[in-house]
């Protein structure tokens, strides 16, 4: 349950008695996971706990208010925040849309790559590097009969000894979500860290996502992303399929994904099967995560069975 923690009224230091208001809400997730990987002992780990504050500020404008958001990962085993993690941004919103600046996920992540990420701890094949990008600015349109678009840029200054481009990256996305149907497309481009007239980062990415939830209690989703890394001369593709069936407060779900690097001629395959029981703002769940193909040669990637407990407020 979200808790209101702050309500302020500050008089302006001018003759006119202008009053400004701010409201903030504390929110968070505490999550612990007991997991057993093949050939390894069981381990109790943090499952992605975080804490944050979000709120609005009265700007004295009829149709526009200021907004802010801060979320930080924390580790329940360490009893401490995780440095450098999480999302933070500030901006303004109104009937005209929303503008934010800071560190956040761009459209190719929120509309496409993460669309099939329906598990708690399971697998997802992705080649998208626009997650939690700092130095970012974005505009998000209002909902227009189910259609929303987002346009953003990354302004990171000069990351090397030479002058970079003014815009180090840009990201565009559009999504339709109505009448039991979902469809989205996104495109992103990065080019920065110039040295000796060459860019250390020079890549583009595009992706598509689609879903259908017109059948009662059933949710079907799919996505596809393709990355062209010109600096590394590598093209990588990834796709995922997911399905979830709900029986009152019980969810049965699965995700299957594959990715392939063209030049390296390497393919990866992963899947997750799970069941979850929600209880108000909490949940318990069990998942099996399997890995195949190139994952088999990675000693850090093992088939895993896990049980988790999550509390949200």
TrEMBL record:
Keyword Transport on entry: yes
Entry keyword annotation includes Transcription regulation: no
Alphabetized GO MF terms: porin activity
Any Pfam family matching the protein: Porin_4
GO cellular component assignments: cell outer membrane; pore complex
Subcellular location: Cell outer membrane
Domain Porin: start-end pairs: 9-282
Chief place of localization: membrane
Residues spanning the signal sequence: 1-22
Highest taxon above the source species: Bacteria
Keyword list, A-Z: Cell outer membrane, Ion transport, Membrane, Porin, Signal, Transmembrane, Transmembrane beta strand, Transport
Membrane-spanning segments: none
SUPFAM superfamilies: Porins
Subunit record text: Homotrimer.
Protein name: Porin domain-containing protein
């Amino acid at each position: 349950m979200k808790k209101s923690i702050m309500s302020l009224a500050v008089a302006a230091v001018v003759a006119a008695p202008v009053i400004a208001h701010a409201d903030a809400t504390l929110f968070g997730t505490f999550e612990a996971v007991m997991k057993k990987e093949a050939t390894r002992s069981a381990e109790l780990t943090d499952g992605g706990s975080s804490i944050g504050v979000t709120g609005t500020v009265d700007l004295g404008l009829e149709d526009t208010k200021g907004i802010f958001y801060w979320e930080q990962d924390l580790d329940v085993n360490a009893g401490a925040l995780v440095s450098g993690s999480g999302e933070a941004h500030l901006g303004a919103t109104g009937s005209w849309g929303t503008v934010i600046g800071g560190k956040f996920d761009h459209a190719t992540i929120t509309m496409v790559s993460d669309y099939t990420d329906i598990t708690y701890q399971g697998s997802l094949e992705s080649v998208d590097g626009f997650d939690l990008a700092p130095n970012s600015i974005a505009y998000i349109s209002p909902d227009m009969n189910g259609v929303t678009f987002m346009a953003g840029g990354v302004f990171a200054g000069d990351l090397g000894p030479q002058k970079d481009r003014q815009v180090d990256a840009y990201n565009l996305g559009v999504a339709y979500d109505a009448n039991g149907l979902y469809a989205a497309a996104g495109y992103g481009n990065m080019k920065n860290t110039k040295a000796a007239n060459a860019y250390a980062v020079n890549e583009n990415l595009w992706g598509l996502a689609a879903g259908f939830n017109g059948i009662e209690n059933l949710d079907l989703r799919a996505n596809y992303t393709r990355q062209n890394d010109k600096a590394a001369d590598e093209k990588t593709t990834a796709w995922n399929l997911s399905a979830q069936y709900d029986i009152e407060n019980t969810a049965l779900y699965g995700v299957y994904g594959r990715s392939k690097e063209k030049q390296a001629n390497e393919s990866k395959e992963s899947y997750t099967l799970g069941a979850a029981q929600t209880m108000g703002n909490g949940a318990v769940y069990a998942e099996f995560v399997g890995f195949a193909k190139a994952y088999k040669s990675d000693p850090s990637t093992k088939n895993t069975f896990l049980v988790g407990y999550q509390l949200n407020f």
